[in-house]
Amino acid sequence: MPTHPLFPLPVGLELTSVSEGADVVLVRVTSGRPNSPCPLCSTPSSSIHSYYRRHPMDLPCAGRPIRLLLTVRKFFCRNAACTRKIFTERLPELIEPSSRLTTRRRGAVQEIGFASCGKRGERLAQSLGIKISDTTLLWFLYLIPSPEVGKVRVVALDDWAWRKGQRYGSIIVNLETHKILDLLPERTAESVKIWLEAHHLVNPFVRKKPLPLGVKAI
Predict the structure, then answer these.
(1) Using CA atoms, how far apart are residues 187 and 134, in angstroms rounded to an integer?
(2) What is the pLDDT of residue 210?
(3) How many Cα atoms occupy the beta-carbon half-sphere of 142 within 13 Å?
(4) What whole-number distance in Å separates Cα of residue 59 and Cα of residue 57?
(5) Smaller CB count within 10 Å for the chain: N or C?
């Protein structure tokens, strides 16, 4: 069966069977695409080197955890000028390279993380059938590429925990759009100063003009 309304798959992937495991539903999926482009030189190849299997977690169905048994291939790159002689098949519509979660499950986890904090997000995810720790949930937020900063006039700073009580970073937010601009790996004044200077913003640690009458410094 190439696909199913309750379990849609990208074109070229085939759902071959569904079975029950000890604590998850196992869904076997096989790639039947005729070729795959080399990730280094983008030259399509149909010369199969071997097969291998990945075991990513997908979104739950009716509260039951879903694990994919995904059979994909390795190809020979036939471009003589390319240094990558063998490459693994890429399925960007379903899963990122080396990821243990499908793209749709990762997106759901990130949306939960944006809508809540770590512990609260962990409880919410588990109630939806997604087992994940608060630390992992926050880590997936860090994997989201930061948008282009563009022109910014007013920013707000706060800290956030990589590991509570041990390691903290800084979060920079655009106060006019209420959107996150960047996450810094540490919370020192020097790292914030470097970021502000790189984005041509006024250094907040040096007041160049006196405050207007009636305005107090915080």
Answers:
(1) 21
(2) 47
(3) 17
(4) 7
(5) C
CB neighbourhood size of 202 (10 A): 11
SS3 assignment, position 2:
coil
Q: Which amino acid is at 72?
A: V
Give the closest residue to 91 by CA, choosing from 56, 65, 129: 56
In this structure, are residues 52 and 72 in contact, taking their beta carbons and an 8 Å threshold? yes
CB 204 within 8 A of CB 196: yes
Distance of alpha carbon 45 from alpha carbon 188, whole angstroms: 49
Distance CA 148, CA 66 (A): 35
Q: For 122-143, how does the pLDDT look when each residue is reduced to its tens digit (9 = 90+)?
A: 999 999 889 999 888 888 887 8
What is the residue extent of each domain of the chain? Answer: 1-100, 105-144, 146-198
Beta strand 179-184 pairing with 167-174:
antiparallel
